Amino acid sequence: MLASTALAATVAFPPSTFAANRRPPNFIVIQCDDMGYGDWGAAARGAIRTPHLERMARQGTTFTDFYAGANICTPSRAAMLTGRYAARTGLGWGVLLVGDTRVLPTSEVTIAKALSPRYTSALIGKWHLGHTGPDWAPTRHGFDYYFGIPYSHDMKPLALYETRKSDTAPPVGGPAEIAELQQQFCEKALEFISANHERPFFLDLALSAPHLPSIPSAAFHGKSASGAYGDVVEEIDSIVGRILARLTDLDIARDTLVIFTSDNGPWFEGATGGLRQRKGGGGYEGAYRVPAIAWQPGVVPAGRRSNAIGMSIDFLPTFCAMAGIAPPAGVTLDGRDLSATIVRGAPSPHDELLLFNDEDVVAVRTQRWKLVAADYYRNYYMDLPSRGYPQLYDMQADPAESYSVADRYPDILAGLTASLARARETFASFRTHPSTIIGGQPTPTQPPRTSD
Prior knowledge:
By secondary structure, the protein is of the alpha/beta class. It contains eight helices and 19 strands. A hairpin with a 3-residue loop joins strand 14 and strand 15. The longest helix has 23 residues, at 227-249.
């Protein structure tokens, strides 16, 4: 029987594992916007050069079966920062557009809040969890420092903000130029690392690229064989190299866990690496499975590839465990502590992961199996089982999800179908919008998303 979708609190990571460190580890998450699973390394086949990411992988561990918290931006970022499926936060439906007044509730415990006051924290880059009212800025959600844009860089008006937790006045935005943003984010990240290298810190470096439009800085324009998109990915790769070099120069590389990932699959450009569908799709892999590399020299094993399933909801409990900090009291976490998986190669602590399309649970993934329950077809959002098309995939044999084996494994199908039903019942009470699956019948899709 599969475990309940409401996951238990994490177990503290054994202190002896980090006894050789000078202090509790720093945490850096470098999160891209819409970077595809196949946009780096060997999968890019030389069309996009990513030597720094490849070196990071050689010196660290690559997670091949790692998932974003959602298939679009806002719910994915809400899930990552809170360790909870976004439906629990009120930001599980759609993305925040310019006229939206929704904001991440201040009652939610972010990674920054969970690590405070022991850690100083910064969010540099794209926020996209609210931009109206007195409580929208990241500094109202546990971060000590914020430099960035409030939403995707194709949304207008676009402004660049800088504020600190100690500031009493609301943040005021200044001019933002897309071509300069990634370099500005990198410079501020380097400044933050240097200023705080003698104490524990958490940095969420939320790059707004390669989200379209792809506009690289002048130094990277025309460098890639894959057009402007490739130029921007090569710029991202250079930023990764600069971050790792600064940690090495400050002699804190061994003290710092760096995770590189993306908020969802690629949009209209970018490579899924052979996975099915793209950002914003139904329940298939290309919308959710993302690049994931963990790097901490002398702590995270070098050159390893792990297929243990994980998700960005795991960052909060993992960081708490590695820092020796108790997980937030009274908070239902869906994430699990991945520290033993990252450091010792232990199996995934997850029995299952849930994939959401807005507030609908549309897929259940276990280590070997995946049940896909909904997809888009022309003008319809289709509930596949109700049409007699049960979609069960053996992810070890068929990661591209080309052939359902539902008729070959009826017991597995029954178990995952029951798990899906339990998950839908669990999250029904968190709905802010009606389900797009009505009576198991095809229904018109929600209005098209103009951005995220």
